[in-house]
Amino acid sequence: MVPRYSRPQMDAIWSPAERFRIWFEIEALAAEAMAELGTIPAEAARAIREKGGPRAAAIGPAEVEAIDAIERVTRHDVIAFLTFMGEGIGPEARFMHQGMTSSDVLDTAFAVQLTRAADLLIGDIDALLIQLERRAFEHKLTPTIGRSHGIHAEPTTFGLKLAGHYAEFVRNRTRLVAARAEIATCAISGPVGTQASVDPRVEAFVAGHLGLAVEPVSTQVIPRDRHAAFFATLGIVASGIERLATEVRHLQRSEVREAEEFFHPGQKGSSAMPHKRNPVLSENLTGLARLVRGYVTPAMENVALWHERDISHSSVERVIGPDATIALDFALARLTGMMEKLVIYPERMQANLEALGGVVHSQKVLLALTQAGMSREAAYAAVQRAAMATWTALGRPEARDFRTNLLADAEVTALMDAAALDAAMDPARDFVSVDAIFTRVFGRA
Amino acid sequence: MVPRYSRPQMDAIWSPAERFRIWFEIEALAAEAMAELGTIPAEAARAIREKGGPRAAAIGPAEVEAIDAIERVTRHDVIAFLTFMGEGIGPEARFMHQGMTSSDVLDTAFAVQLTRAADLLIGDIDALLIQLERRAFEHKLTPTIGRSHGIHAEPTTFGLKLAGHYAEFVRNRTRLVAARAEIATCAISGPVGTQASVDPRVEAFVAGHLGLAVEPVSTQVIPRDRHAAFFATLGIVASGIERLATEVRHLQRSEVREAEEFFHPGQKGSSAMPHKRNPVLSENLTGLARLVRGYVTPAMENVALWHERDISHSSVERVIGPDATIALDFALARLTGMMEKLVIYPERMQANLEALGGVVHSQKVLLALTQAGMSREAAYAAVQRAAMATWTALGRPEARDFRTNLLADAEVTALMDAAALDAAMDPARDFVSVDAIFTRVFGRA
Amino acid sequence: MVPRYSRPQMDAIWSPAERFRIWFEIEALAAEAMAELGTIPAEAARAIREKGGPRAAAIGPAEVEAIDAIERVTRHDVIAFLTFMGEGIGPEARFMHQGMTSSDVLDTAFAVQLTRAADLLIGDIDALLIQLERRAFEHKLTPTIGRSHGIHAEPTTFGLKLAGHYAEFVRNRTRLVAARAEIATCAISGPVGTQASVDPRVEAFVAGHLGLAVEPVSTQVIPRDRHAAFFATLGIVASGIERLATEVRHLQRSEVREAEEFFHPGQKGSSAMPHKRNPVLSENLTGLARLVRGYVTPAMENVALWHERDISHSSVERVIGPDATIALDFALARLTGMMEKLVIYPERMQANLEALGGVVHSQKVLLALTQAGMSREAAYAAVQRAAMATWTALGRPEARDFRTNLLADAEVTALMDAAALDAAMDPARDFVSVDAIFTRVFGRA
Amino acid sequence: MVPRYSRPQMDAIWSPAERFRIWFEIEALAAEAMAELGTIPAEAARAIREKGGPRAAAIGPAEVEAIDAIERVTRHDVIAFLTFMGEGIGPEARFMHQGMTSSDVLDTAFAVQLTRAADLLIGDIDALLIQLERRAFEHKLTPTIGRSHGIHAEPTTFGLKLAGHYAEFVRNRTRLVAARAEIATCAISGPVGTQASVDPRVEAFVAGHLGLAVEPVSTQVIPRDRHAAFFATLGIVASGIERLATEVRHLQRSEVREAEEFFHPGQKGSSAMPHKRNPVLSENLTGLARLVRGYVTPAMENVALWHERDISHSSVERVIGPDATIALDFALARLTGMMEKLVIYPERMQANLEALGGVVHSQKVLLALTQAGMSREAAYAAVQRAAMATWTALGRPEARDFRTNLLADAEVTALMDAAALDAAMDPARDFVSVDAIFTRVFGRA
């Protein structure tokens, strides 16, 4: 992933040096398990840990380059790594990796990286949830117009909007926890996964120390349906980011101006139009969501490897492993910051709510008319008449609001007087269930 | 979905008549809940149920066409349906749908359809698991060559191959159960989801009777991240189908011939080459997997609806709702039948296992040499020498098998004699962990 | 594709009966070519044409069912068809399909169907271009605010907006013509495409009569990169539909109301909110675009068939062949109707243009100040000062417009007086290049 | 893109320094055009070129960091760049970028980068075509079994296989040339693309000097359908790479062994199985193809920007611009090297061709029997009988080949004697059209 969209902690998980360190940990643990079982000498395992440990810990750019240089000859990354480590460990190194295959190391290491990445992402969502909850309660009863099809519908509250996004990110958190479990497995099963050359207890030992489950059947590789499920989850989370980003983009439109991304002092909106404050963060998030979604199908295409394994998944994962997690980490953090500082304009919300002459209260009137005994069809027609009259004249000198038009309608006044109408249109009626909904979402209201 | 890939039970879920029947059930339940709360007269709810019930039950092609005819005027499907039902229910029909929106009906009905579809798919997987388990145990110890990169690696058993697919479909079943829960929610929340015009207890009542959970925040629509998760899961299951189908395609290759799809009497393989038995079922499944995966991204693009809702998701779902579930149902059933009848050729497996002169036992020899005290590098070189010699001469008059070549190598014989070598290469060694793996997968071995 | 999104002409291309008729035409033409070459008796070709022609022409639902019944036994669609035709043609039928394979018929027929579909789609775009051009000229100088990031930027004209979409659909037309050429090839090349059993002149003859090119190398199948290019093009066209649909959705927002989809008499916008006129057509188009895009990746996954061919592409194409073309045909026609009748509100455009107190003229003032000798940085600062002051007070009692704020700024007035400022802000300046752009796009202004 | 899959020349196109240099070139050209038109002083344009040129040329890591530091304050990349350049150019810098917007620079620069990338990719394909043509002629008449469904069908030649891939890459070249033209446009059109603040002649001047066409309507941005078409083309090329890679993977299977990727001295196939030569290059290419295809949908989702532009496309393009072109460049080069050195085993091809006892000649016999007067159905039955008998006994002691079985069939011998049968089965018959096909593909045979 390009540096612009990378954060250091997530980036570090995917550094070559860190990957080698994880490889070493797997090899060292496997050796210890084998020593315990008597498959290799106890001194060998000790030498691997004691000489290899510091060597692995000290891997920096120069060592990475040294390993890469070996790989350019052997054309095999794990052999290159083992060769490099062997040079530091000495003759006991021959007991390292015994009965194992490269995939045992590669796939288990990838599982470690992905679980760490998942942990960061879950933490990112936790941070986001805090802001969403805070802002939702802050605006629990801030009236704003609810819009279906981009058209004013009926009043809702800004807090309810945020509660919906909060609930979605709670689901996304649950999905990420499940996705983490999907890929948190260890395979130390040897060639074609028969565990003929490596005892299942070695696998169990390594898995236990790494906090992973044992893969029930690894045909040399950890099956890729797990990774497909993982990356699909990232795509769903990204789509949730896009939904909230799209909401902010809409709210910041010049005609709406109900909310604005925080404008940093010194920030320039445009090289030519200084008055502009563009929702560039949320637009950026929209693009990042497309990007993360784009990694889902390649991950699914990786599932159908040939026979016990082929290596076609590898080039895909070398790219999307870091790219998808780094981009999503960045996006979640950006979204959190954006929501934390989002500037909200309740007075603009109120102005927009009233901008259509009150026709947004039509549903409440329709209900009241029906309850007053009018047939649904007649009530619908009456409300439509008044609403159309209001709508058509909107912004013209002859404009009359919805209430006025209703009170000029004999069919309406036959059943409801002005007081009854005002009671029916009382905005407080719109929010009667807000507490109930908040309680469902947050456990409190 | 085209009839060719449709099965009646899944198809029925998506028929227009069935959809209208579900709509009615939702409306009738909502009316009953409202009557209980006193929002509408009890007689109204009774009339809706008693007059509407038989009318809904009797919906057939003619009635569907009648409703469609109304929709062509109103350009609104739910209003068309309510009008049609109202004609049969009479004046009490005005109490139907009170305070509700179309989405309350549409989204809850879609949830009912998707949960039913999920139930069928879970049943499909159960049927598949039965066959996979049966065949896995049948061939638990049938030796076959394990292949990585399409190249012979080391022996495994055909049962182990199937155990791997079984384990994957167990995971897929778990995922489908989770996906079912994702979309099993009910929303009766009225305009923009505030539940201002419809009591939350109505929603709870309807949800309870339909076996659904209450949607915590439905902004008029059930949030589409749920559906994205559902369709993504179908894409993962489809990819698992492709993996098994790809295995069968490989095994049926003329050069491999280890297994064959059942060839029906009367079936013609090709219009021109009568000897051919083509793996057309598994190829067909490969294509169906691509198709089902293709529906994932549109479902994810549906997440970011505008504000409280727009209707852009609808055209997508009208197509992929039925298409994805029908195609996957068909594919799972086809796969089950294919695996049930798959013709397996153990003698071909054995022949292929031995076809490379024994080099597939190199790993066992490498291990034995190392354990006998040779350095890993030296052992690697010795095994590589013998293997290369075997490999290079393969199929030529001067061909000598791996064992012979090893016994001609002084470095090898310095450490191992023929008996030790035969012990090291004993194929039984390859299967020592099969029972352990089977126990992990099936709970028995 | 569901009937709701199907139009009869495109649908007809994909009917089973029509497919069989095309199959027959290919067989009959091939027989005629073979008769000309002396490969088969001339009477045979004549009998095939004369007896087969009417039989093929008369294929209706009953005959389709008869062929399907044969297929259920033979499990081979082309053999079933040949058997059915043979029953009507008599003994000469044995000369039909000689040296050919099923794919020769299937792939060439698919090419015929796709080219016909492409022709309809090109016609659809032509119809759309007519409306876009008409509306573009109608509103060539209708001022409207140009928006970047959803934020008011500078004035443009509604005609210019449409000119941009027109230019995109001209490109889409060009792409569709190229896509049509991609798939307009014929393969009559026999098993594995060697043309060993069928003379290349037969292929050339059939191709010529069907208006197709000869496929240079068909390895039994027409290579699927052609189809991938075709479906990718449909995905691009669909994305262009989405762009215009998104524009309309934005313009119809309650806060913007610059344009509206035509509202049919009798149409009901919502079951609960009668005043609503929702942009349901453009939302529907947005969803259809997602759907058509979803077919692109499966088509690309179809490219890598195994060896000379496998049949995994078939199930994909049985679905996406009709679905993608039918959905796109429907979408283009719906878009054309929508644009034809789109209700446009120039007065609302004007009102929105002025809604921000004139800050949208800042760029013109910035330029004027720079030209009057102010440094870019100073001019930027001055304009930003005035713009920010205008923006901040917007809608408040103390509001002053951009012009007033500029004239209160000594740095500005030191270089420009009111007259100079008015000249700089003259809206006519914004449209000086409209004719030039129109000429580039339409060849006239 | 990760360094592992990057080649220096393509990488250089996407370096930050190179991007800034292209930005400068656009600004300098625009200034020169404006000076020519008298919009800015001639000395200003000269100063920009003379002082800015060396400053831009000298941009290295330190300067990139300096510009990035400015961006961290201004939060605007183009303003940061202009500020940096202005520091070196002096007061005349204020005439730079006049009337332009950031997008004018960004989008035109992106067009320059993409056209350069396209040029490299076209060159890559040219290099590939050379190898494919060379190997195709080398093996024009090398017999090999053609396979449909992975099942032996009829003989073809290895040269014909390659000719098919050659033809596909000729098409891919044509598509890349078209894709290059799609994105080779220049926009210098100012805010919302009206060209109100920048003369169309400036745009024409810049376009001409950069070898780009003028964008007919750029609504501040170059419309993204162009880029969608570009990236879709990369996805199609990638799929063609996958097709050839899949062929090699199949040919290298242990059971097939008709071809092998070149095995470098020192290369280690596996850490555990030294005899293995895995088709790791072609597997790697398969994965890279998935990756490049994954970028197609995000590019298509970029098309529907809001109104005159939003910036959601930017994050997508910052990643997929380099990633897709770098990965495809690498993949094409790797494929070329792989095909250049591919080790081909004609004797294995011959052995496989004969492995099924001659049943692969059934089509020729079927044709001969039909021509000898047998009905198609009877001939089909006879051939099927003999083929089935051959097939069933294959590899068993009682095995008899196809020819023997045919000669034991009275229905066959009633019409054909052994000589006639041998003539019918003569393999030379399979290759009669190879020259004709080669001529169609290469213009020579």
TrEMBL record, chains A, B, C, D:
Under which pathway is this protein filed? Purine metabolism; IMP biosynthesis via de novo pathway; 5-amino-1-(5-phospho-D-ribosyl)imidazole-4-carboxamide from 5-amino-1-(5-phospho-D-ribosyl)imidazole-4-carboxylate: step 2/2; Purine metabolism; AMP biosynthesis via de novo pathway; AMP from IMP: step 2/2
Q: Name one GO molecular function term.
A: lyase activity
Which keywords accompany this UniProt record? Lyase, Purine biosynthesis
Which InterPro entries did the record assign?
Answer: AdenyloSucc_lyase_C, Fumarate_lyase_CS, Fumarate_lyase_fam, Fumarate_lyase_N, L-Aspartase-like, Pur_lyase
**Adenylosuccinate lyase C-terminal domain location, by residue?**
357-442
* EC number(s) from the headed UniProt entry: 4.3.2.2
Q: Which SMART domains match?
A: ADSL_C
Name the source's superkingdom: Bacteria
Catalytic activity reported: (2S)-2-[5-amino-1-(5-phospho-beta-D-ribosyl)imidazole-4-carboxamido]succinate = 5-amino-1-(5-phospho-beta-D-ribosyl)imidazole-4-carboxamide + fumarate; N(6)-(1,2-dicarboxyethyl)-AMP = fumarate + AMP
Q: Does the keyword Lyase apply?
A: yes
Q: Which CDD domains match?
A: Adenylsuccinate_lyase_1 (cd01360)
Asked whether the UniProt record includes NADP among its keywords, one would answer no
The family assignment reads: Belongs to the lyase 1 family. Adenylosuccinate lyase subfamily.
**NCBIfam families recorded for this chain?**
purB
**What's the protein here called?**
Adenylosuccinate lyase
Q: What's the source species for this entry?
A: Plastoroseomonas hellenica
